[in-house]
TrEMBL record, chains A, B:
Native source organism of the sequence: Palleronia marisminoris
The keyword ATP-binding is annotated on this UniProt entry: no
Presence of the UniProt keyword Calcium in the record: no
Highest taxon, organism lineage: Bacteria
Entry protein name: Succinyl-diaminopimelate desuccinylase
Domain Peptidase M20 dimerisation: 203-359
Gene name, Swiss-Prot/TrEMBL: dapE_2
NCBIfam families: PRK09104.1
Top enzyme class: hydrolase
Pfam families listed in its UniProt record: M20_dimer (PF07687), Peptidase_M20 (PF01546)
Length: 481, 481
């Protein structure tokens, strides 16, 4: 029996116990971006610190200007001579709207439905099951084989969902400790419930909150509605002009410098599927896709502006006749290579400011943004990961883009110069960032087994793509769903 | 000493005690339109029922399909042979946004600032001080003179702020009991802090709540923002098209049948003031006024569409990257004579439905609306009220319009055929319908004294306007502020 086989056996044998621990982790309300979430962040960090120590790591909780990082490493160099960084995040999105949940957000239990054993909770998929999959894989490998397969560094972030405000400082201060041959970043999704993927192209992200203020506080709308400034009306007018009739963002200079997709990339992405994410669960009716691009091209390869939230005046219930003093929109820009967050932010702010009527005012707020990242598809660790995934799932991994943004990838890749491999096992249908977020036991199990196989590939020796074979990405091959 | 003088003296002597009782009434959270407000509504009704019995009325609480009405009457006909109906409402607007209040909404106490004794609380001005002013005046008249000056009927409504859903049925069922020579409706404002007014023209009102639903529940905006339907974007586009470049409502047929202001009316309103409400406290910068009309004409004489609230997706804090599954706007239409609520509602719903993209859906909701009301300016009770107000305040009462809507006026005037006189003592600067709503002791005192003088005019005998004199409205006279 090979090391890999022994470790897989250990994973299988320990599944129920490992899931029980995962549910305990999910039950900790580690919401970032809300003051009330701070105690949960601290509890989750302490819980993970203990768990990593139990597995045999030297672990500690590192405080930052914002939320803490759990940082662990194995003792001394390993026989393989390789040093691997694993990244995950233990903070979760806010729960709101609470009333839309039919399950408790922080009291997960296993629910069997149509033969699938699911568990519900904020963070169930994004991203506590993800980080727990590599921790359990490393535990199992050591338990089965007596030692880790490589020197291991684990970094668990506590502020990913709020835009990682102190990540840059943290990385700078721990540059040496984090210097590894590769960073495995486990925070992305599968192509479909049966087909794995590695994400090689990620969008940049700029969050903006815009508040339009009228010169008066709230007024009676019956008395002044017909004459005084209405921030909802002003905001609607501005938002409706942010896209042109071709579905393009109408901000001056928004597309300046944008790196176009390559023909090879477009060809591969068009071959993937007629469906959007391989699962076909998302209905695009009523959506506006930029003229000249397919849905996948727009999602992965074109910059976008999305409205995430709007609020102002009477939130109901009841019909309060108020002319609100202010209205607020929250939006995000998703960037591609060639766009810089600060330029986009400044151009957007000018776009809005130019459209605010005299006498009214506008406030802007937003954390530091991050640029898009394109990763090498010939990095031998990526190839090892692709082989490990294919061995577990029986289908080749899709090398895909994403419309999402993972700030740590750019920070590790561009900032620390680490090769990154971005993979994960969640699905949009897990309701990530939404009410009733969930995950399932089988996917957790196979995700953990995938890590064992990837560790086995790394332990066994790295090899490039077989040139000219079906294995090499970009060549003609059947990667239909 | 005349009856009027004796009653004024009694009002003056009892001021502090009367205000203390008023604060007790304001402390009862009688919010209509919210399920949680129901106990407060019941408590306020019982409190008023007791208070009216103490004054010597036969009073009872009449249940309806929605909120109760307190109905009281004096025993038997009075010497004057006249029968007067007094109307007020004891329900209040919701408190939200609670965090914007710097005073407790339901724990009023007197706060002295710059020599003005104010009290803060939801309902302080709209409308508990108003109804308490005529109750205290009637109490004082009886205490000073041994009997009421006329036969009195008092009707206190508990659902005005939610659009009076059961008012029509209540009036129909109590038609005989409510049959009076005049209805004094105390729920309107002064022209300025020093100048009284009577409102003779009120707008109609249609409340609508519109929700745009995407075909999916909330999605991750990074993944699907560039391709799937965004209800905030759809809603913004629709709202921004509701007004045209002339500031007119762009709904087909919206202005059909609209009764234009008379030249005499426009002339009188233009003479009133360059300021908007006589107090000059509202800043119109950034507002859009329909082309061809002054601010006061737009407020009192032109129909309007106002956005009262909007909500969808991430409400913050924190930057949740959500593509929301729905977005909602609450809006009101203010109607003038010639427009019917149902026609406007139907035309608006068609306007929106025509603009919802295929694959998305729209839901509409809204209580029954009411039409605009124009009252006679030669009704002798109105003339008596104008004389009483002028005697108290030392300035002639402005006969004004309002952009606001008081459903009971139409119901009593058009439905029961009662002559109505609409007056009151609140000001927009009292923050009605807004956080930190307040009122002041002096205005309550002078409002109560105004009612004594009006009762004195009614008791003394009704007389028409002195034809051709300064007193007659519409003639040249100095009614500048």
């Amino acid at each position: 029996m090979s090391d890999t086989e022994r470790a897989l056996k250990e994973v299988d044998a320990n599944l129920e116990s490992s899931v029980a621990e995962l549910l305990e982790l999910i039950s900790i309300p580690s919401v970032s971006g809300e003051e009330e979430g701070r105690p949960g962040i601290a509890r989750a960090a302490a819980w993970l610190d203990d768990a990593l120590a139990d597995v045999g790591f030297s672990s500690r909780v590192v405080e930052t200007a914002c939320n803490p990082v759990v940082l662990a490493r194995s003792d001394g160099p390993a026989e393989s001579g390789k040093r691997l960084l694993f990244y995950g995040h233990f903070d979760v999105q806010p729960v709101a709207p609470r009333e839309a949940w039919t399950h408790e957000p922080f009291a997960p239990e296993i629910v069997e439905d149509d033969g699938v054993r699911r568990f519900y909770g904020r963070g169930a998929s994004d991203s506590k099951s993800q980080l727990w999959s590599f921790i359990e894989a490393l535990r199992a490998w050591k338990a089965a084989n007596g030692a880790f397969p490589a020197e291991i560094v684990i970094m668990l972030e506590g502020e990913e969902e709020m835009g990682s405000p102190s990540l840059g400082d943290f990385l700078e201060q721990h540059r040496e400790e984090l210097d590894c041959d590769v960073a495995f970043i486990c925070d992305s999704d599968m192509w479909s419930p049966t087909r794995p993927s590695i994400t090689t192209q990620l969008k940049g992200l700029v969050h903006e909150t815009v508040t339009i203020n009228a010169p008066n506080a709230d007024l009676h709308s019956g008395h002044y509605g017909a004459v005084a400034a209405n921030p909802i009306r002003i905001l609607s007018t501005i938002l409706s002009s942010l896209h042109d009739e071709k579905g393009r963002v109408a901000i001056d200079g928004f597309y300046d410098g944008v790196v176009e997709m390559t023909e090879s990339q477009r060809k591969r992405w068009r071959e993937l599927s007629d469906e959007l994410d391989g699962s076909g669960e998302v209905n695009l009716a009523g959506g506006v896709i930029e003229d000249g691009y397919t849905a996948i091209e727009a999602m992965w390869g074109r910059p976008a502006a999305d409205f995430n939230g709007i609020t102002g005046g009477n939130q109901g219930p009841g019909g309060r006749s108020v002319l609100p003093g202010s209205a607020t929109v929250r939006l995000t820009f998703r960037l591609v290579a060639g766009q810089t967050p600060e330029t986009i932010r400044n151009r957007f702010r000018k776009f809005v400011s130019d459209r605010v009527p005299e006498g009214c005012s506008v406030e802007f707020d937003g954390p530091e943004g991050n640029a898009a990242v394109h990763l090498s598809e010939t990095n031998p660790f990526l190839i090892a990961a692709a082989r490990g995934l294919e061995a577990e799932w029986g289908q080749p991994a899709v090398l895909k883009g994403t419309g999402g943004s993972i700030p740590v990838v750019g920070a590790l890749n561009d900032g620390l110069g680490l090769d990154c491999v971005v993979l994960g096992f969640i699905l949009e249908s897990d309701a990530i960032h939404a009410p009733d977020e969930h995950y399932d036991v089988e996917r957790f199990h196979r995700g953990t087994r995938s890590w064992i196989r990837i560790l086995g590939e790394v332990r066994g020796g790295l090899r490039p793509w077989k040139q000219g074979s079906d294995e090499e990405p970009g060549r003609e091959r059947n990667i239909g769903n």
